[in-house]
Amino acid sequence: MQIEQIFSIVEKDLQILNTNLQSMVGARHPILNAASEHLFSAGGKRIRPTLVILVAGYTLGNQPITPSHRRLAEITEIIHTASLVHDDVIDECITRRGVTTVHSLYNNRVAVLAGDFLFAQSSWYLANLNSLNVVKTISKVITDFAEGEVRQGMIQFDCKMSMHEYIDKSFYKTASLIASSCQGSAMLSNLQYNEQNQYYIYGKHIGLAFQIIDDMLDIIGSHKNLGKPIGSDLKNGNLTAPILFSLIDFPQLQDLIEHEFENDSDIEQAVKLIYCSQGLKKAKDLAEEHIQAAITALPYQNSISNNENLYGLIMVGEYILQQIH
């Protein structure tokens, strides 16, 4: 299977999802409605709903994907989009996925309200899934987002931050939603608890790998792939895996960080130091370790021969790594 085929497996499902998203987030107030339409028109690869659909397809075997699985995929994307709106306000991002962010297009108040509205909509649809276990699993994600933002805010420009703290923060900000969504999809397929947990572990490690590669893209990636201006994390003092690894090779990077890049050339100098270090290679190696852990977590004992959904779940890891090439 070629990497491009991952999304072809779920192409029809994602087309339905994109159509449904527009109607699901339709707000009564024109500004909120315009903000919501603006967000979803920006696109993106829809990696989170793709995983929900792939897990559903694999765990249901020959049965068709249920409306509840489709709705969970939609809820997942709404929650993710809501978190991006709030992140952009906090990080003062001007663009996201090549389009102007909501707070830049309108103002911070509208952006915060739009994010709150999307979280509220997701909660409403989540409650209507009529699965208490899924509600408990997914609703915790919203508190994890807040936990992640608080943790990130407390360790900005802090070179004493450990890799363990970085992984914890990355879990709360990114991996929690992916892990819980995969588990929620398995729950809707009525799998046993231990199998549900396997999909949670799969999603957790895929989510961590996704965040590590995204953090690498902040240093080396294209504006198109990243979805926000290059160097945003570095400038905001959000120390990520490639930066933490680079500090080992170049202690002088610490001076630039602790002085919060006070000179115009400091960011450029910091990026050069990161490029000259082993930071990017070690970060990629760490992402690969998490991808392998994700694949190992997948249950194969009941797999159907040549199951495209299973291969899709495996190849998602390769897709994530491909983003840095």
Q: Can you characterise this structure?
A:
InterPro entries: Isoprenoid_synthase_dom_sf (IPR008949), Polyprenyl_synt (IPR000092), Polyprenyl_synt_CS (IPR033749). It comes from Trichogloeopsis pedicellata. Belongs to the FPP/GGPP synthase family. With 325 residues, the protein is mainly α. It has one domain (5-322): Farnesyl Diphosphate Synthase (Orthogonal Bundle). The protein has helices spanning 5-9, 11-24, 30-41, 47-60, 67-91, 102-105, 108-127, 132-154, 163-188, 193-220, 223-226, 232-235, 241-249, 252-258, 266-276, 279-297, 308-322, and strands at residues 95-96, 99-100.
Shape: globular
> Secondary-structure element order, as H and E?
HHHHHEEHHHHHHHHHHHH
Mean pLDDT: 86
From the N-terminal CA to the C-terminal CA, the straight-line distance is 19 Å
Strand content: under 5%
| CATH H-tier superfamily | Farnesyl Diphosphate Synthase
What is the β-strand count?
A: 2
**Total of DSSP H or I helical runs spanning 4+ residues:** 17
Q: Under the CATH scheme, which architecture would be assigned? A: Orthogonal Bundle
Low-confidence stretches: none
CATH topology: Farnesyl Diphosphate Synthase
Tell me the count of domains: 1
Structural class: mainly alpha
User: Main sheet: which strands, in order across?
Assistant: 1-2
Pfam families: polyprenyl_synt
Organism: Trichogloeopsis pedicellata
Keywords: Chloroplast, Isoprene biosynthesis, Magnesium, Metal-binding, Plastid, Transferase
Cofactor: Mg(2+)
